[in-house]
Amino acid sequence: MVRPGRRYDPTMRTLIQRLAPVLQLTRVTGAFAAVANVWFVIVWTRAFPAEPGTIQIAEGSLWVLLVAGAVMALGLYAFGAAMNDILDAKRDRTLRPNRPLASEQISEELAMGLVVGTMMASVLGALVLGPEAVAITAVVALGVMMYNVAGKFVPAFGFPILALVYAGHMLAPNMHLVFVWPIWLVMTHAMIVSVAAHAMEHRVPRISPRAIVFAIAGWALSSALLFASGPLRNTESLLWPDWVPMRSLIWVAAAVLLFVVMCLRRIMRLGIGDRSGEKVRRYGTLWPAIYACAWLVGAGKLHNAWPLLALTVLGVLGMTALREAYAFVEEPIEFRR
Fold first, then answer.
1. Of 192, 235, 279, 335, whose Cβ has the fewest other Cβ atoms within 10 Å?
2. 171 within some domain
3. Whose CA is closest to 209, among 223, 197, 195, 189?
4. How many domains does the chain have?
5. What pLDDT sits at residue 3?
């Protein structure tokens, strides 16, 4: 027999209700992917002696570098997410009144404090990685501002800017990286996921054929600049250095195929709409960490990949826990006896 049960501890529910607006505002459920991108460059540079790096990466403690990289990445990610919500607050009051600022669950003063605080945190994290990291962090922050102020309203330019932001924050720890295929994959992945989710969610402005052409042109130009800068430092091989095993492509291709299959299954089940678009964004946020693991494991650096493998597992568990926490706030569970 099912009897009315006791709800969860009211104190815990109140705590989750207070934390939920901040967690939603900064998109914590996807922030770990930004950390994975930065960690990958640090770990990859240390794993291959032929990969040029900075003095900080070569001589610094791995733990210190990983913590600094995480602070920098999380700061940039939260900076962009908080700024997005501040700029969209007025429109959200009409279109999405359940958002934290629109519903007044969080004040504009606190949101502005998050913008300033997260930007300062990203710079402090970059200081440990060297002066070049600080400069790139500042440029990436400028790119984030450009995207939030104008880019997302002009898809033709917004999608390439978003791709460059992803590439820039990955290169912050080591702008001298020779093997740039992982950077290219993440920036391409980010752009495709953004375009697909934007279209499925029927967001405005709509993506016109002309916008697609301009976006592809911007992506192609960005790709050309990326490959022109990295491989030119390696005179032995133009695009693929000899010291990177080709078998790593098999692992990465498998990761790409798995992502496509997962997204197609969700789209076939839910149809094209807001829910399927949200699923594509969620998987798209998760997958850069999986790409990072695939590159390292495929290259035979399993013993170096442990930070990223652990981060990926923790990220999946964290996303699941936060999703359950939000569901708990909206519809508390009762026990069965």
1. 235
2. yes
3. 195
4. 1
5. 45
Q: Closest by alpha carbon to 39, among 189, 170, 168, 225? A: 170
- The pair of structure tokens assigned to 307 is 């930070």
Range of the domain at 40: 29-321
Residue with tokens 């016109």: 208
Query: For residue 269, is it within any domain?
Result: yes
Q: What parts of the chain have a pLDDT lower than 70?
A: 1-29, 91-105, 231-238, 323-337
CATH assignment at residue 196: 1.10.357.140
Residue 60, both tokens: 């610094």
Q: Distance between CA 325 and CA 330 in Å, rounded?
A: 9
Predicted pLDDT at 4: 46
CB 118 within 8 A of CB 144: no
Does 248 map to a domain?
Answer: yes
pTM of the shown model: 0.87
Whole-number pLDDT of residue 72 = 96
The closest alpha carbon to 31, from 122, 152, 139, 133, belongs to 122
Residue 21 has a pLDDT of 53
Tracing tokens 């009144």 back to the chain, one arrives at 97
CA–CA gap between residue 317 and residue 289 (Å, rounded): 14
Q: What is the pLDDT of residue 89?
A: 72
